[in-house]
Amino acid sequence: ETVFAGGIWTWMSSCPRYSLTLEASLPALKACINKGIKEVIATVWHNGADGTLINSLYGLQMYAEMEYRGEYVEEQVMDLFAYTCKANGYDFFDMEKADHTNQISQRSNCTRHFLFNDPLLGLLDDHAKGVDNPAAFYRELRQEFQNKGPKTGLFAESFRYFRAILDVLEYKVDFGIRLREAYLDKDMEAIGKVYEDSKLLGKRIENLRKVHRQSWMYYNKPQGFEVFDLFYGGLQARLDTVRYHLDFFQKDSSYRIGELEEERLPFVAYKPETKGVVDIGFRFGRLFTPAVLYTVYNEGMIG
């Protein structure tokens, strides 16, 4: 007997991707109905686990209604989701705005690669330059989401986590760009601003770590969050290293910060019309550093 396994797109970043979920699932489910396929599975997962899987529930509601009604009428599904889950489905749709900084590509996943971009190495800086006024973009989105998502109940922790990500990205998305420009121009006023911003950014990263931890412990087993303690701790340590270098540079402008003297190249090739806002399907280690954080043997990946 034929079994169909579709997917609710939670695996690209911290944002559920309902535009692609509907684009892929609706014709597939209609085909299952037409062909009489009775066993249908909605798969949900995340590569890297920075997405909150509870955000897939609207997708499950959609699957259920397709089985029951044989068609997708968005207004009806939204009403039923509001009844069963006490939330506005459009709030979940809107979360992916954080990944579509230029509203160009449905498959871009900016929240992940800008969050994990190292402030000194700047492997993703070339891509951040393609975003039109990136700090303002995330600032406005942060303000928009102050009034979106339940403040209590099942989804409250998920939206708190998402808002904390936006808090960080407001300052982090172009931090490395501003740092490098100030260094190359020997602009001490701008250096001072970046120095203070690094402290504020550090506080927001620590808040994100704590909010993410609360969300993780609410929805998941505790095992696994040690990875995110490592990620966030690494970002904090790198900001400390930024200040270490800037302390010397502010005293002596001939002091050299080697990482900032390297040309910023695209992390992956992209077409000019995308402005570098593309799907970069790597996890923390590959986005953070060109160095190898693991060793591969025949029996698998370790380290």
Please sum up the structure shown.
The protein has 303 residues and is mostly helical.
Q: What is the H level of CATH, i.e. the homologous superfamily of the largest domain? A: N-acetyl-b-d-glucoasminidase
Q: Strand tally, please?
A: 4
CATH structural architecture of the largest domain: Up-down Bundle
| Main sheet overview | 2 strands, parallel
Structural domains: how many: 2
Low-confidence stretches: 297-303
Number of helices: 12
Portion of residues within helices: 40-55%
What share of residues are in beta strands? Answer: 5-15%
CA radius of gyration? 21 Å
Q: What's the CATH C level of the largest domain?
A: Mainly Alpha
Calculate the terminal CA-CA distance, rounded to whole Å. Answer: 41 Å
Could you give the order of the helices and strands?
A: EHEHHHHHHHHHHHEE
CATH topology of the largest domain: Four Helix Bundle (Hemerythrin (Met), subunit A)
Task: Please tag this protein with its features.
Four Helix Bundle (Hemerythrin (Met), subunit A); two-stranded parallel ribbon; single chain; 303 residues; 4 strands
Structural write-up:
- With 303 residues, this protein is mostly helical.
- It has 2 domains: 3-91, no CATH class; 100-302, Four Helix Bundle (Hemerythrin (Met), subunit A) (Up-down Bundle).
- It is built from 12 helices and 4 strands; from the N terminus they run βαβαααααααααααββ.
- It has a two-stranded parallel ribbon. Strands 3-4 form a two-stranded antiparallel ribbon.
- Helix 7 (134-144) packs antiparallel against helix 8, helix 8 (156-172) packs antiparallel against helix 10 (188-219) and helix 9 runs antiparallel to helix 10 (188-219).
- The protein is elongated.
- The protein starts with a strand and ends with a strand.
